[in-house]
Amino acid sequence: MSVTSQSPSNAAYRDPFFAGIILLLWVLLALFVLYPLACLFGRAFVDGGTISLQPLLDVLNNPHHRRAFGNSLILALAVGVGGTLLGFLFAFTAVRGGLSRRVIGFIDTATLLPLISPPFTISVAILFSFGARGLITYDLLGIKGFAIYGFMSTAAAEMITYFPIAYLTLRPILASIDPNIENAAFSMGASRARVFRTMTLPLSMPGIANAFLLLFACSLADFATPLILAGNDFPVLPTEAFLQITGQFDLRGGALLSILLLVPAAVVFFLQRYWLQGRSFVTVTGKAGSRSSVEILTPAMRFTLFALCGAVSIVVIYFYALLLFSSLVVAFGANHTFTFKHYHVIFTEGLPAIRDTLIIAAIGMPLGGIYGVVVGYLVARKQFWGRQSLELASMINYALPGTIVGIAYLLAFNDKPMELTGTAAIIIACYIFRYSPTGIRATIALLHQVDKSLEEASESLGAKSFTTFRRITLPLIMPAFFTGLGVVFIRSMTAISATIFLISINWTLVTVRILENMTELSLGPAAAFSVLVVVIVYVVLFLIGQMLARFRALEGGRVESILGG
Amino acid sequence: MAVTAAQPVPIRLTGIGKSFEHGVKGRIHAVRDVNVAVVPGELLTLLGPSGCGKTTTLRMIAGFEQPTEGEIHIGEKNVTGLRANERNIGFVFQNYAIFPHLSVFENVGYGLRVQQKPEDEIKRAVADVLDLVGLAGYAQQHPHQLSGGEQQRVALARAIVFRPRILLFDEPLSNLDAKLRVQMRGEILQLQKRLGITTVYVTHDQEEAMAISDRIAVMDRGSIVQIASAEDLYDRPSNEFVARFIGRTNLFDGKMRDTTNGRIVVEALGQTIVANSAPDGILPGDTVRVMIRPERIALTVQSTTGVGAKVLSRTFLGEKTEYHVSVGDQLVQATLYGQGKQSAFAAGDSVQIIFPADGVHLMKP
Ligand SMILES: Nc1ncnc2c1ncn2[C@@H]1O[C@H](COP(=O)(O)OP(=O)(O)O)[C@@H](O)[C@H]1O
Ligand SMILES: [Mg+2]
After folding, report:
1. A300, A398, A532, B202 - which has most CB atoms within 10 Å?
2. What is the per-residue pLDDT for B263?
3. Is the CB–ligand 1 distance for residue B20 below 6 Å?
4. Measured between CB atoms, which of B97, B115, B162 is closest to A181?
5. Element (H or E) spanning A351, and its range?
6. What does the domain layout of chain B look like in residue ranges?
7. Where are the beta strands (DSSP E) in chain B?
8. Do B63 and A285 touch (CB under 8 A)?
9. Ligand 1 site, residue B93, Cβ cutoff 6 A
């Protein structure tokens, strides 16, 4: 009798069910991730059947484009540094400031708002405040014709929009630092500043680096804020690419510009994935001590931190209050008579956009949730050939700036064989492959916490793989499923950078309507739309939070995981 | 040896109290009116059940918490109000609080760096102290490469290297396994005696406290109940809490009968029992608590002075045999050492219990 040794690396392929699923995933990834990218590169570099770098050199030789590239990097750097500083300030205050629950709740609310808002929200509020007829510049300070457009306002708007991501990234890291480590250094005679410099700061360094990279990538990809605030003198790549395509119908130029964007985005992605991974100093010394008061802050310092965070929070809340106000008056800055007119507009003329957006979100949500869980499960639990490539491929659209994905989809699905332009399917596919990776990561993280023996026990009882997955694994990873649902839904409601290229007469989106309203200078409806999106997302987030709470027993499913990164 | 004994200093806590504002329970008095004078060079242990305020007291000595009442002196200096970094203390934390991003060398040398000692002096001092705690050759290791016991030694080395005026330990052994715990407590004691640094040590483990301490302060609900040597606590606890917390014990209600001629006679278990001393202020007719440790009791078949009892159960444990016997409706534990099988009693046997006068201790109720 001979025993045939099985290759463990192909174990999953021997199960026809999993082989089928893996094959299906590869087909989908090839179609919606790799093929569009190939189209993008093809359009950029292939000219009449020959590969040529000349178009890229032309783009690089254009001083305007070179400036856009430089501006994008400078902006991303500024937002990365500034946003991380703000996020650190908030996280440090929340963790070490000795604030009451209520104050922290207030801060959390203020930081939640930018995360669940459609694009332009902060930009509009800044225009309302500091524009030519702005509440602060014109009404309060009486400055005539104040020019808000440019680097400063764009950077400020993006910092306020994105610093909550840094806050959510840094808070758990700071919270995991055992206060007794700081106390130990303190008891050895170190000054507070020295304790901060030699303990708190280095211990949170991996988190700081991560937050910086996240914000850098967000700013690099942000297309909406510069479109409103950057003005003509501060071009950046995503908006240039957009204008190239929509303004000059130059698809190749847009493709080339978006490829320039790809370089720094890829650098960030690989830094995060291969350099930062596993670089954390989570407590090596067993259980953290009991609740310990922390001596590294004097009451005066605590108060200062609290005052700073309070001031920023108040600015954020002021912006949203302004938005709400302007959605309820006839014409902000000119006629402050109360009216529901703008809401009437968005629920009549704007209704198709709301309906389309909700339909797309409602279809994308379950599909994205399931896709995330399936990929996460396969990557974390199954051995098969090409597993790591599959994971990497599934992350690509997530890591790429939306402008690149949008242009790539536009190029890929405009003609036969895959003519999808103008359908809802293309928008849904874009959302699923772009925003499910959060669900994939949540699933992987959760499965790493769940002992594999549970599944093996089921298999040893003769259960088929699918039965095991459905009866044992699926209930365990429900929190990750809801996380995935939440992210896809929120982004379906708020994203614009990729889908702006994919809308059509048949299918449009609320975020695109907001942009149109803004370019037509009908700011009232834009504000009303934004308020509506914030409310819808808030409600859905709340419901998902409730679902996650039901699975509280298993860690790994917190609302934060939906919003961070 | 570079790490030498410095002039040891006393520690004095006068009327120390600490209360916390608790969200639900209101004001909690974690520590109240604690008075302790730690003698120079002494190792004093704070012993008590979890939550009795040991850590809070220790952290007030360290300066991590400020007392809400009272004063703290280290040496002649009133340090109340000074922060931890101004008190010159060495602190060993329950979870060691090793700096996870620094090597063993950098961990141990941190305090010296802070004092801006020259680099070669730091090198020498760290090498010496690592030698002292048995970690020679570990300087370049990183914390995650160390076992629990080794981390404990790093924490110890880090606390003593800059020659603090006092040493403070908060349950330093509670994360180690039983065998290592016994070994490490011996090493800590040896080191403390060698350095002669006045030390306050916190534990909830009575055996550990007895093994290591010059004196033990027993705490209960924020207050110190008794400060004494291990022997005194064991033989002459000041109240029932101490008697029960340390070792196993028998306790009965009794009534004082007679205190003449230095012989103290109490009535307990329906019999008369004789003791050698009585607490102050107890008069004939007063009620008292009578304590006797199980191993001080003798059991015999026949005796003229004994108390009649019945054996309920017997547990043979090798070196000793434990009996549960009943005297009337009162249960009494007795432990006999070195008893062979022939002389053993069986359940149901009638026996006589003898309470030797020097084993009987009387307490106020
Ligand atoms: N920072 C704090 N805030 C509120 N209550 C505290 C704080 N620290 C300790 N306590 C309370 O004080 C009491 C004593 O705690 P602790 O000194 O840690 O006890 P032990 O070390 O003896 O176990 C406990 O009831 C504890 O809950
Ligand atoms: Mg304690």
Report:
1. B202
2. 80
3. yes
4. B97
5. helix A351-381
6. 11-242, 249-363
7. 11-22, 26-38, 43-47, 69-74, 77-78, 89-92, 166-170, 198-203, 215-220, 223-228, 250-258, 264-268, 271-275, 287-292, 298-300, 307-316, 320-327, 330-337, 350-354, 361-363
8. no
9. no
Mean pLDDT, rounded, for A231-260: 88
B11-242 maps to which CATH number? Answer: 3.40.50.300
- At residue B138, φ and ψ (nearest 5 deg) are -95, 0
Query: Does some domain include residue A565?
Result: no
| Ligand 1 within 6 A of CB of B52 | yes
Domain ranges, residue A204: 2-284+294-555
Tell me which H or E stretch contains A331.
strand A329-331
- What pLDDT shows up at residue A5? 41
Compute, in angstroms, the gap from residue A554 CA to the centroid of ligand 1.
29
What is the fold, at CATH topology level, of the domain defined by B249-363? OB fold (Dihydrolipoamide Acetyltransferase, E2P) (2.40.50)
Q: How many residues does chain A have?
A: 565
Query: CATH number, domain at A198?
Result: 1.10.3720.10
Per-residue pLDDT reduced to its tens digit, B251-293: 999 998 887 777 888 988 888 888 888 888 888 888 999 999 9
Write out pLDDT tens, residues A373-392: 999 989 888 888 888 899 99
- Which of B101, B107, B112 to mutate to probe the A interface, most A CBs <10 Å? B101
Please tell me which of the candidates A203, A284, A295 has its beta carbon nearest to residue B83: A295
Interface test with A, best of B56, B89, B93, B152 (most A CBs within 10 A): B93
Residue A234 maps to a domain? yes
Q: What is the pTM of this model?
A: 0.85
Q: Which chain B residue shows the shortest CA-CA distance from A202? A: B101
- Shortest alpha-carbon distance between residue B161 and chain A (Å): 10
Which CA distances in Å does A202 have to A260, A279, A322, B143, B145? 34, 11, 39, 15, 19
pLDDT confidence of residue B1: 42
What the block records as the tokens of A504 is 């059509």
Quote the pLDDT of residue A563. 58
Q: Could you tell me if residue A561 is inside a domain?
A: no
Provide long-range contacts, Cβ within 8 A and 24+ apart, for A35-39: A35/A412, A35/A418, A36/A405, A36/A408, A36/A409, A36/A411, A36/A412, A36/A413, A37/A396, A37/A408, A39/A408, A39/A411, A39/A412
Residues paired with B201 in a beta bridge: B45, B169
- In chain B, residues with a C-beta closer than 8 Å to the C-beta of A181 are 97-100
Chain A residues with CB under 8 Å of a chain B CB are 178, 180-181, 183-191, 194, 198-199, 202-203, 281, 283-290, 292-293, 295
Of the candidate ranges A352-356, A382-386, B194-198, the one whose mean pLDDT is the lowest: A382-386
Domains: count for chain A: 1
Backbone angles phi, psi at B275, to 5 degrees: -125, 165
List the one residue out of B213, B250, B251 whose CA is nearest residue B233: B213
Q: Which residue, judged by its Cα, is nearest atom 3 of ligand 1?
A: B20
Atom of ligand 1 nearest to the CA of B219: 22
| Contact criterion met (CB < 8 Å) for B62 and A187 | yes
Q: Which two tokens stand for residue A259?
A: 């490829």
Of the ligands numbered here, which is closest to the C-alpha atom of B52? 1
Would you say B80 and B71 are in contact if contact means Cβ atoms under 8 Å apart? yes
User: Would you say A544 and A417 are in contact if contact means Cβ atoms under 8 Å apart?
Assistant: no
Which ligand lies nearest to the CA atom of residue A291 in the structure? 1
- φ, ψ for residue A117, nearest 5 deg: -95, 155
Tell how far CA A232 is from the center of its chain.
27
Distance B62 CA to ligand 2 centre (A): 14
Q: Within a domain: residue A247?
A: yes
Q: Are A442 and A480 in contact (CB under 8 A)?
A: yes
Instruction: Indicate the pLDDT class of residue A289, thresholds 50, 70 and 90.
Output: very low
Residues on chain A touching B83 (C-beta within 8 angstroms): 186, 295
Minimum CA distance residue for ligand 1 atom 14:
B53
Which ligand lies nearest the alpha carbon of B218? 1
